[in-house]
Fold this protein.
Amino acid sequence: MLAFIVAAGLWHRQRAGGVARIDFSMIEAMLWTMAEPLLATQLDAPPQPQGNHSDRYVPHGVYRCAGEDDWISIVARSDEEWRKLCAIVPALSSMVGFGFRERVERRAAIDDALATWLRPQIAHCAAAELLHAGIAAAALATSRDLVDSNHLREHGFWDTHGTGVLPGLPWHASFGRMSGAAPELGADTDVVLGDVLGFSPAEIAALRKSGAFG
């Protein structure tokens, strides 16, 4: 959307002259991702908060494990995965025949059973057991877990910075990265116009005087 607005501003400048001031809020940037809740609100009552619950899967949630701040997320994406989960969690065995609608009706009991089973367990161990059985599960990754992740390291996600690391840039560039306080608005305008675009000091001064920089 922002790219379209910039293109429209350039199109207007070529035909009518002048400049365009673009005020682009995050609401416009994200609104298109919320089509379903918007339609539901227009056609019916506004959607209600549902936390970690899902309209498509039951169970679907995050549960506390044994550590100080250890959690695990679990979702049963099909009746087959639900049956596998029931075979692992004893308190769910009596519900093994439940279809999706029955699981929705008994969601609270299912969550309680999972929470009781998981509370004394180590999150990574429980996740490994569930994944081995073909059930989608993941232990909450702390910042240290992410830094120590072999997957992220092998894919070059981390860049060495001082005595630690920073997330790598998602693009390739001919220049390196810098760290520090963010520049003030317009602080690098002259550098970009002069060093990158080749404008002379007189041309930059004329643009500034015309109000082209807002």
About this structure: Residues 1-48 form one domain. The chain has a mean pLDDT of 89.
